[in-house]
Amino acid sequence: MAPKRKGRQDDVDATVYWLNNTAQLRQQPTKGQGSIKNFGSTDLILGAHEWGEAMVRAYLQNLADKRVSASDRRRQFDGGMPPAAETWYKRGYRWYLLPKSKDAPEAMAEHKSPAGGATEAQLLPEIDRHAAYWMKNHSGKIRAEVMIAEEEEKEKKRTAEAEAQRVVRQKRAPTPTPTISATTPATVAASKAQGLSLPPRLARLLDKPTTTEKQMPREGIRELVVAAFENDRIVRVWNDSESNNDRRLTFLDMRANDLCDALVQRGLGDACGRGCANADQHFEKLKRVAGLSLRGKGAFNGVWEAKGTASAPWVAQLLPAKVAAAFYGGRVVLRCPTPHSEPLSFDEAVDEATNILFTALATCGPRVAALCPSVVGRWPPSAGPLWGARQYQIYTFLETATLSVDARYAPTTNPHLSAIDHRPYHDALLMTIYRISAEGYVHLDATLRNFVDFYPKTLPETLAHFAIKVIDVEGRHFRRLIQAESTEWRYLFLFNLMIVMVFLKTRLADRWSPKVHWDHLRNLCKQLIDELPGKHNIASVTMWDGEFPVLGEASRFFPELGAGALGGNSIEAVRRAALWQLKHYLLRQPIREAQAHYTSVILPNKKDPSKLPSKKQLDTARDWFNTTYRKVLLPPRTFFDSKLREKKRFVEVAFEFLETSVDDLRRGCANAIPPTEDHHRSCSEYFLLGV
Fold this sequence. Notes:
Layout: H1 9-21, H2 33-37, H3 46-65, H4 70-74, H5 84-97, H6 120-137, H7 140-172, H8 185-194, H9 200-207, H10 222-230, E1 233-238, E2 248-255, H11 256-265, H12 279-288, E3 292-297, E4 301-306, H13 314-318, H14 321-328, E5 332-337, H15 346-361, E6 368-379, E7 389-399, E8 403-404, H16 405-408, H17 423-438, E9 441-443, E10 451-453, E11 468-470, E12 478-480, H18 489-508, H19 514-517, H20 519-530, H21 538-541, E13 543-544, H22 571-602, H23 615-643, E14 648-649, H24 650-659, H25 662-667, H26 685-689
Antiparallel strand pairs: 1-2, 1-6, 3-4, 4-5, 5-7, 6-7, 8-10, 9-12, 10-11, 13-14
Helix pairs in contact: 1-3, 3-5, 5-6, 7-10, 10-15, 17-18, 18-24, 22-23
């Protein structure tokens, strides 16, 4: 029924929508009487809250039916003091508590207010405060729906414009005439020799390191990702061409929760983080029930592929067609959490999803066929469905990589696959570091394992495009420091570059070639380091000093990098987190490897001291110690450990490390440990490992 009271037409129309949409809701008993007695709290009254949000949706529905654009509907959440959405919410909230308000329709006469003896004068200030509280803390879901609608509206417009342009081009295109190819072996050879060109800004910086060109990073997408999560949408960054220019963020029609529920019903909850807690059962289930093959795994995620429709028929039945076709075709893999992966908070999940999608858009990360948020619970468990903090896992269908950069540089890699002397490959890695730096990011986990390539398995001599991408960009490790135009990206580039180069030289050891890996970067790095005094950026403030235990009880502690003083995107927080991470990799990790491969073999077994290693085990352990630990792992570790006392910037220490020959690094630790023939079961780990 239409309201009899007159008002602005939008108010009248919205009230009609509201009455139609809340017929059943208004028949429910009042909720939240207890909160009335304690109105000074920030707790929203549940019944009033439901009426308030219903009113917001009614106004939005009215605007949509009047063909008001999604962009204009979204502005109702941002403009005005207060925003229109807050005013709408307050109207519905007020009617619940004050059904005899002047603007309330006659249908409200039957509603019994839970306000008891509270007067309108007492309630109105509290209603205002509750509406403002909702706007600030709980309006995200409805706002998200409008933001998603806005993006889909834009995508339709882009698609229509592209189609119109295609039709125009088709009409204008002249009739092709047969031509004879002028391609000869000579022209093919000349084309092959050209290779890749670095982007002009990076090329100019390398050629003239004093260059101070500004860089404008891309606009952030976190708000849009929040909207996707709030609106239960599956997000995609894909393009069907090889071009990097037409990548866009879009949304699949299927809802994320619907896909998760369908997977769980098929016994495939392990694919979306809702599976079993036992690791062995988890992997067996994905192999046997899901019919997938494991391509690789880390501590918290596994990467799976489908071997065809016969192995995994559920793919075509459950996944959107675009995703299923790419999955079957081997173009994408499934990255899903293992049982060891702790649930993520809303902010942690959004941060990780934002980084995955942003790097895809910026062409420095793999394309994303589908990114799906999975709600795996609420915290605390006793919290109600409205107020409990949601916990998430993220699973993604990512573009299939060929090999990691670490594998390309591994000593055991086949020469046809290796990038050891491949300067174009090194330039492609440099390009990726430049791209993430130009977008304002610092990568605190920039090991070679976290870069992958999309080249043929047998690496061509000449590369047609830059195809190394960054992965594992979770929020605690991949931090965005700069979002505005500036020259500061140069120092982010320096910091990221020095981290990667240190890991590269450590990996290569005797195979390190300054001519291929360092000489062309040396002047640039030196110039940027010389500029650091007096400046405040991540490279200038990250000092290599302090202590870091690598053995004993204290060595087991490692803080949560995304929390407390180590969390966030401030320079100080990133500095602290970077030091923890770098010290772990450069000082502690070599010791952990030595414990696993050597001391755990030759020292008495703590659980069974009488258990003795075999001669073969001893020989293998000693060979690893002499060839890998003493020659490859210990020299860099000793170098960085000794530099802690000099209290220099990390980038300065890294520069010295890259300038020092491998032979000199080894001479620096020649007397740190005795030869293996002097080792015996009564020796301490400290003695054996040269700590």
